[in-house]
Amino acid sequence: MDELQNRLASFIRVEEGRAHQRGREEVEPVHRPARERIRPPSGRSDRRGGYGNKDHTRVQQYVHHTPLNAPRARVLEEALRANLLAVVQIPTPKGADENKYCRYHQNRRHTTEDCNTLKDKLESLVQAGHLQKFVHRGRASSRVGRPPTPHESQKRTRQRADRSRSRSRSVDRAVRGVINTISGGLGTRQPDGNNSDDSQIQGFAGERVDTKGYVDLRTSLGADKDAKEMKVRFLLVEADTSYNVLLGRPCLNMFGAIVSTPHLTLKYPTDDGKVATVRADQKMARECYAVGLKVKPRIANFSSNRSEVAMMELDPRTQFDDRVEPLGDTRPVVIGQQEDQCTTIGRNLTTDHVTLIEELLLKNRDLFAWQAADMPGIHPDIISHKLSLFKDARPVAQRKRRLGNEKRRAVEEEVTKLLEADFIREVKYTTWLSNVVMVKKLNGKWRMCTDFIDLNKACLKDTYPLPSIDDLVDGVSGYEILSFLDAYSGYNQIPMYQPDRDKTAFITERSNYCYEVMSFGLKNAGATYQRLMDKVFQHQIGRCMEVYVDDMVVRSRSVEEHLRDLAEVLDQVRKFGMRLNPLKCTFGVSAGKFLGFMLTSRGIEANPDKCRAILDMRSPSSLKEVQRLVERLTSLSRFIPKLADRIQPILKLMKKQKQVEWNDRCEAAFDKVKQILSNPPVMRRPDYGCDLHLFLAVGEEAVSAALVQEVPEFHPIYFISRVLKEPETRYQQLEKIVLALVIATRRLRPYLQGNQVIVRTDYPISKILRKPDLAGRMIGWSIELSKFGLRYEPRGSIKGQHLADFVAELPGRPSHCCSWVLYVDGSSGHKGGGAGVVLEGPNGIVIEQALIFRFKASNNQAEYEALIAGLELARDLGVKVLCCKTDSQLVAGHMNGTFQIKDDQLLKYFHRAKQLFAHFDSIEVNHIPRSENQRADRLSKLSTGKEKGQLSSLVWQIVFKPAVECLQVYSIAERDDWRREIVMLIQQQEAGIALRSEESKQVARYVIVGEELYRRGYVTPMLKCLSKDESEYVMRELHEGKCGRHGGGRSLRARALRAGFYWPTMEKDCQAFVVKCLACQKHENIIHTPAAALSAIVSPWPFAQWGMDIVGPFPTGRSQFKFLLVAIDYFTKWVEAEPLARISASQVQKFVWRLICRFGLPKYIITDNDRQFIDKKLVTFYKELGITPLTSSVEHPQTNGQAEAMNKIIIQELKKKLGDAKGAWADELQQVLWGY
């Protein structure tokens, strides 16, 4: 043992001895007679082909072929380049597989790897001394070409019998190079050779460890003189373990030893027939076990075999932090022809379920790729990556960048691998050229990336939508069994569009190459891959699986359902020619990581790796470390309530460009977040059949919200938070609460739509949002929130520890027991009267209201109006304890009973105020000096407008009647009035009665202002709702009133809406009203000419082209008016008309000059050939001003058709207005123009 410890430089781990020895012997050739007809066995393939690929029946020249270290296609290219071989072209037979291609025979009968002729040709070249660099230098290769000795044949026969017996005793198939227990020493039965071993050993969870070689030592068990001593081979490995030597089953079997773990004893027979006993040291065993528990597992870096190199090194993805990753115990399952070709399944499945999954995987084992040659690739007809370049994009050929020796060698290796995989090809005369960038990987190797920055800038953005991460995570969570799939080098399965391949060219030391497949780093590559996934799994996504680009998860409620779903998904994979990566696929597990979240049957949990990264992180000392901390916390924001509010001290450090000062507040915030992440909450997807509850929290510089569900059981769904912008920090407390609600509805829109949402808050925001005279942003928020059908309820009891902490730390929680203060003041003057109200609540809540009186009121009446308005505001907010302060000594004396009321009008105000006192538990009215009531005094004097710099949260209200007449008796009394039902529903909602969802949506658009009902719109002002009689009056005034116009039904409805009126049947009523109009029926157009196509009239800009004409003579009116001069702008259709007693060129010039003074210089004026329009003085006038006059011919009056059409409209409207009073046309002209 001393000799062993001196020779071992690191910890060692051991693989099974017999499996290791069999693996060396199985590569030895088996002698068969020459010229024997050889056919591949059924279900087998050569080292590059897939399953079921049958070669043609040609007699091979050689029975055994020298193992090569490169694909035969690569060796053939080298032989052709060296003129060692010549291509023999053979026509493709009928019925050949189009997916196969032989480079040697130039046909599609078989693949290059399966070509027997090529195998014999290459073997002849190898035996002649050529192609030596492609010969595999393993120890078994020296025996190729000679028959085995009789001793070797007997030993091989005995070993095959032993293997068959061992396999019949075990249900699980043994895997070469995989250990199923902690093993170590190998019994040596072969002569010593080179003490380097490039094999690997694999542990329970699939981790692989490189071996550093082996050592043969004489080993004895125990220190007795009769102890047996044998030569044992040990593999040298680097492993974090508390043991120096691990003895495996091959070694123990060679000694014939039996181990008793409960007794810590080992016994084995000696050479003289006795039984030797080796007893363990309990103290030493306990110390080793304790040390082993403290050892941190190390991720071993290992050198993969060739198929794994093609699998891992050609993976274009550069980061794997948020990749799909199964959790829980898994075990390997062999699905390939070789024992190291395996995938993993969950260990918690029953034996029957494991058998069913294994059968399914073996049935579809051809869908798993072990090397690049196993990938048929997606057919270009299905999808190909196209580079959509801008039309004016100019090709960019980057200058070659010089690389160091290490990077240059790495580039050559990567290029060789890509050439072998047929992912790239050599290209000449390319216009686009990019450089390669080498990136250091975690294992110390280099990854080659291509700098497509210039090519990407010239490409259009593909706006193909990616699925929502929240929807995908919710869709996968809560299922009992999951399977994680990964495409084999997924991006490289998609071919490049043939004309765009040369554009992906990159430069190396030796040559230029371009990609045959879609390369990682190209713009829109992710969108192309997502488009392929949506096409392949269009019927499975959302039903039994979720896909985000190249992350695929199949989820089911039971194993039986999961088997059906997996079979369906694998059928789609086969249909579209995709291939999966078996080493990264896991089937039948109960939990896993997906898109940065840990998904289990319980719900959505925080990623433990991300939590551990924050818990193990020390306090930041630089700006970069602070940014790294904030990025990590942001990725876990869904699980941390009030995150933005908790880490405010840390966020402020990011604004500083100088040295970061980590203070006690930052440390306390960091510790609080760590405390939450030590036991993060488990989120659940919502049950859309039950109500959702939304809690709000408002801080000085951040707002937060929590979405939970209490039925059928309590569970949180989502935590959100946001830092307030600098202007938002100056909002009043009530505005911040509404802002928090708006932010929550925007962020949680998918959860809130189509569900009943209950906002749990003690703030009276529901009553505030229903007020009609809110500020600009408040009314906008109110309309935005109305589409969700929110219901507001008191907070009540709180369930859940995290939600209790969320609510307990809510600042500004109002209490009905807190006293509110009301400041009121009224004023009256010759310009009008007004009142100011300032209501202050706990925690800084301030509501300001300005009233403008549209009636005459004395100063005392204005003071009472201000008091009554303030009391109504406090009543609507649910205030119970109120202190009123006014600078009117008369009002304070009346309310306190110290002054006698002598005025009957003031007595009415007094009784109205006393009625409002009954709504409060405690109220008092105090007199204060005017100097202490300046805010309310200023508000009372804002009767003419808004002060500069005034806060936008001010509530404005115009009062048309005194308060003593407004006794809350609505004027809607008709039983058949459609407004009655709306008013009743609003009253029920204000009384706290829950309405149905349809009713809530119906009344959300209506509001009661004073006595009237108004309809609210998104972009339109509030519309007054009219009864049937009122709508008749409005239609009559708009159609035939003083400024009305006898238009059509649609025109009448549009003018009614613009006037600010609404009733449900207004479109039908307007059509019926127009039909009944006698004047419209009497003077309507009678069209005799057939319909013709309209001609477009084009004008470059407003008031650039006018059409002008003279109408008349009319019946003589006042001032002897007989004619009408009309002008119309071709762009805006604006009309100017002037009655004239006589027509002359000077009158036309005066009229044109007035047009120029009002609308600017026109470019063209179109008229007919009347002498008034072609007068020389008028033409000279046009020429001096730069105006071009255009005249229409007698044969084609349509040249001035715009003016002609306007003349017809004016004459028609005058007929409808005048009736029999024809001489009053000049007086009615302005009304006609206004109506137009």
Automatic annotation (TrEMBL):
GO MF, one annotated term: nucleic acid binding
Domain Integrase catalytic: 1098-1236
PANTHER family named in the record: PROTEIN CBG26694, PROTEIN NYNRIN-LIKE
Keyword tags: Multifunctional enzyme
Span of domain RNase H type-1: 816-945
UniProt keyword Magnesium present: no
UniProt protein name: Uncharacterized protein LOC106754575
Domain Reverse transcriptase: 420-599
Biased composition (Basic and acidic residues): 152-175
SUPFAM superfamilies: DNA/RNA polymerases, Ribonuclease H-like
UniProt feature, compositional bias: Polar residues: 191-201
Source organism per UniProt: Vigna radiata var. radiata
Gene Ontology terms describing biological process: DNA integration
InterPro entries referenced in this protein's UniProt entry, alphabetically: DNA/RNA_pol_sf, Integrase_cat-core, Integrase_H2C2, Retrovirus_Pol_polyprotein, Rev_trsase/Diguanyl_cyclase, RNaseH-like_sf, RNaseH_domain, RNaseH_sf
Superkingdom in the source lineage: Eukaryota
Region annotated Disordered, chain positions: 18-56, 133-201
